[in-house]
Amino acid sequence: MALTLASLAVLSASASLFVAAAPSLLAERETTAANCTSSSFTIPSWFVNDFQTRGANTSFSVLNRATGSSFLLGCQAVGSSSDLKCSTSGSASDPSLQISLQVKDKSASIKVQQSWSCNDRNPNHPLAFTASGTTSIPLSCASGGGACKSSNPIDLVKGSLSSPVQVTPVYADGPAGHNKPGCVAGSQEPKWTLGTIIFLNETGDGSDAIQSQSIQLQVTNEATGYVAGCLMYFNDGEDTTPIKMTCGGGADFVRRNRYSIRTETVFYPRSWTFTINETWFCDDVDAAKPVSYTATGKTTLPLVCTTESGRTACQADAVPVSGKVDSKTELAPYSIEDPLPTADGCTISSIVSPSWTLSNFEVDKSSKASGGPSAIAFNMKLNTKVNLFDYPVFVTHSDVQLNSTDSWYPCVFGPNEAPLAPRNCTFQYRDKTNTLAINSDWTCIDLDADHPLVFNGIATTKLPELDCETTSTGLTQCRTQDGYGWVAEVSGVTWRTESVA
Ligand SMILES: *[C@@H]1O[C@H](CO)[C@@H](O)[C@H](O)[C@H]1NC(C)=O
Ligand SMILES: *[C@@H]1O[C@H](CO)[C@@H](O)[C@H](O)[C@H]1NC(C)=O
Ligand SMILES: *[C@@H]1O[C@H](CO)[C@@H](O)[C@H](O)[C@H]1NC(C)=O
Ligand SMILES: *[C@@H]1O[C@H](CO)[C@@H](O)[C@H](O)[C@H]1NC(C)=O
Ligand SMILES: *[C@@H]1O[C@H](CO)[C@@H](O)[C@H](O)[C@H]1NC(C)=O
Ligand SMILES: *[C@@H]1O[C@H](CO)[C@@H](O)[C@H](O)[C@H]1NC(C)=O
After folding, report:
1. How far is the CA of 327 from the centre of ligand 3 (A)?
2. What residue owns the CA closest to ligand 4's atom 8?
């Protein structure tokens, strides 16, 4: 039975259901969990469920979010210190799982370290991971002392990988303003401010100028600080249709957010009535208890108009709008900053299946029978599904001795190119066998921009058949079919974390 994160999320949403189901979950320790490899790189982390203390004893369960494996732990105080000694109870145990726990006042500080391996990508070569992380768990205690439990429905321990790479994944940003202090408090009685409202009525001159109307404004939610821009052109004519607008703000394209803010407004050009319907998100009080709000507000725009040769311009600024919450939804704990699963990026591709796509290889051989310098050029691009720079890098070297088959030539990149993949390389070309070997260093910053990873490996490839033609000056130009790309696997890949000064 493979546990999917989705089913676990459902289980953990209801604590009592999770406890009831736990024993059967514990019976299985899976490394084939769906997306084990990509989850290990992107969300190496644990959920701590049912954290409770009873006198000197503490118990909880730890769920590894990458593997889906769960462990029950029991901890006892050692002497009079606040450190507790923890060991697994129940049927599942893992010698690599290390828990450090301190309970002091109304807070528990927990450190989790664990090693595991995933075989969802290559069953014959499981990939081993080690990660650790800490968090602090706020406790609510029963009056009279003694029993305490976590104040959160569930606690999250975000981890850093130490193996196979050193990476502290960056989580998603979440929708704008979700953690702004006062987000939850300010959302109880929603307030917006409308800025720079401009309503234009171009009535035309009956011949050339076209009759058109437009409305534009900015809607600022006071709870989140999120600003949505609204703009709509319309042709009013005799019609009195309400003008519906979907308003937008700056989008976050890098790490895909699970949730996005939705702002819909309606403007009535005759009555100047204006309505807002917005959905936004808050987790400023507690990331374990995120909430989404959908609220509506209504006002009449206090427009002031001036008319000049067939054009009426009406304006207002800083118009407050009060509204009410129509619905409030509690979301899965920590879901706001959890990145959505995405296809493999630079780091995962480089470890799981490193390869280059090569194209447009060309060798220009000089006419000298003795073997004068030749020029070689080709394009190379790292094979990965999410590429920060989605174009190939142009590599050349103009002083290649074809008679010397053992020389490695430094790659020269196109003008103004300072690529990450490859960052630098050397290559070797064998004319007789039509083979190319590329020894490259490349850098990945997709998971953790603060700790760039530098990879190295050699790709050896047999080139496709070359078409040759000899120019009038005696130069023989041989090249692969224009735009044809082929894959060269990289072997012996090593990596290290680049030390950042
Ligand atoms: C603490 O755990 C020990 C060993 O499991 C047990 O004997 C003891 O009764 C427990 N104490 C409390 C207060 O639950
Ligand atoms: C625009 O101006 C024309 C001419 O003054 C007027 O008939 C029309 O009602 C105006 N439209 C709006 C939406 O105010
Ligand atoms: C607000 O918009 C949502 C989504 O379009 C819709 O389901 C809801 O009924 C709207 N609320 C009101 C009060 O119009
Ligand atoms: C696994 O990742 C893919 C994207 O790579 C995603 O579509 C799918 O929902 C993920 N499955 C689970 C169980 O998270
Ligand atoms: C290759 O040719 C160059 C230029 O003629 C010459 O200088 C060099 O010694 C040759 N190298 C070998 C290994 O033959
Ligand atoms: C890249 O450059 C560094 C520093 O100059 C050098 O140590 C390394 O060997 C080069 N790597 C390759 C593949 O040429």
Report:
1. 10
2. 341
Q: Respond yes or no on whether the N-terminal peptide bond of residue 422 is cis (omega within 30° of 0).
A: yes
Ligand 6 atom at minimal distance to the Cα of residue 426 = 14
Residues ≥6 apart with Cβ < 8 Å to 456: 439, 440, 441, 442, 493, 494, 495
CA of 401 to the centre of ligand 6 (A): 21
- Inter-residue contact 52 to 84 (CB < 8 Å): no
Q: How far apart are CA 475 and CA 412, in angstroms?
A: 21
- Rounded Cα gap, residues 326 and 193, in angstroms: 19
In tens digits, the chain (501 residues) has pLDDT values of 333 333 333 333 332 222 223 333 333 344 667 889 999 999 999 999 999 998 888 999 999 999 999 999 999 987 777 788 898 887 778 899 999 999 888 899 999 999 999 989 888 889 999 999 999 999 999 887 679 999 999 999 999 999 999 999 988 889 999 999 999 999 999 999 999 999 998 876 666 566 788 999 999 999 999 999 999 998 765 556 899 998 987 654 445 788 989 999 999 998 999 999 999 999 999 999 999 999 999 999 999 999 987 789 999 999 999 999 999 999 999 999 988 888 899 999 999 999 999 999 999 987 765 567 889 999 999 999 877 667 889 999 988 888 777 899 999 998 888 888 899 999 999 988 999 999 999 999 988 888 899 999 999 999 999 999 988 878 899 999 988 999 999 999 999 998 765
CA-closest residue to ligand 5 atom 2: 371
* Cα of 399 from ligand 5 centre, angstroms: 12
| Ligand 3 contact via 244 beta carbon (within 6 Å) | no
Ligand 5 centroid – CA 404 distance (Å): 7
Can you tell me the distance from the alpha carbon of 302 to that of 296, in angstroms, rounded to the nearest whole number? 19
